[in-house]
Amino acid sequence: MNAFSRAIDRFCYKHPRFGIPNLMLYVIIGNLIAYLLTMLDRTGLFYSYLLFSPRLILQGQVWRLISFLFLPVSNNLFLAAISLYFYYFIGRTLEREWGTPKFTIFYLSGVLFHIIGGMIIGLLTHSAPGISGHYLNLSMFFAFASLYPNMQVLLFFILPIKIRWLALLDAAYFLYGIIRISPPLYKLIPVIAILNYLLFFSGDLVSSLRHAGGRRPAKTVHFRSAAQAAKENKGYLHKCAVCGKTDTEYPDLEFRYCSKCNGYYCYCQDHIHNHVHVQ
């Protein structure tokens, strides 16, 4: 975890009521409304009012600072529905894992980076950079994959595949976007979304690379030693506060600590999102 993430966690701990509950639900509802109105408007006028345009924003059309988030993902109803469901599932999962304050900061910081990047690109190129919420929503998948790399899903509702491999496909899509987009300055649009992810997860990525390279910092070794000692004393390291299952009895279960409970309460994968928070 990097210094920025630690600062965010401290802020969220001190301000548990900060944020917008069910933020992704509002984003998805906005996308649905925008999609329907765009399909009904054969003139394209409504769609044009959603576009991010630095020149028009400076002329007073400030709604464009937010409306670009609701640009339709696709004209195809099936693809649009699948994409929006995917975004909602990822966003709600991250909110449950992190809590409302941290997820709100994560998403809104991405929006802010897009606005700043879009204004810079638009003013330098004297054009509308064509930014949308597409890459921002896709970047949430990197966060999801970092938290649940071994979760298995059914690709196309048929093929079982782990999240980590889908994250590689997501990364390839971002790379393709960076290569394909023109003019060159527009390539910053997908990069901006990735930078927001790295702001929250760069420390975790560095730690993973060090671990993979066999270089374990002293803190990690000490933590493992303490954890091993605790396991020898109690017979287990993690125990679910709801059902009482331990990592010794059920080695294949995932155990996590709840960030919303007041104290260090551990839960198994069946109860981490299904328990009464201790206050």
What attributes does this structure have?
279 residues; mainly alpha; Rhomboid-like fold; 2 domains; two-stranded antiparallel ribbon; 5% strand
What order do the helices and strands come in, and which of them pair?
Elements: H1 3-14, H2 23-40, H3 45-50, H4 54-58, H5 64-67, H6 77-98, H7 100-125, H8 134-147, E1 152-155, E2 159-162, H9 163-180, H10 188-212, H11 218-234, E3 255-257, E4 266-268
Antiparallel strand pairs: 1-2, 3-4
Helix pairs in contact: 2-6, 6-7, 6-8, 7-10, 8-9, 8-10, 9-10
What does this structure look like?
The protein has 279 residues and is mostly helical. The protein has 2 domains: 3-210, Rhomboid-like fold, CATH 1.20.1540; 231-268, no CATH class. 60% of the residues lie in helices and 5% in strands. The chain has 11 helices and 4 strands. The strands form 2 sheets. It has a two-stranded antiparallel ribbon. The chain has a two-stranded antiparallel ribbon with strand order 3-4. β1 and β2 form a beta hairpin. α2 (23-40) packs antiparallel against α6, α6 crosses α7 (100-125) and α8 runs parallel beside α10. The radius of gyration is 21 Å and the shape is elongated.
Unreliable runs: 215-227
- Share in β-strands: 5-15%
| Number of distinct helices | 11
Largest sheet: 2 strands, antiparallel
How do the strands line up in the largest sheet? 1-2
Structural class: mainly alpha
CATH architecture of the largest domain: Up-down Bundle
Give the proportion of residues in helices.
55-70%
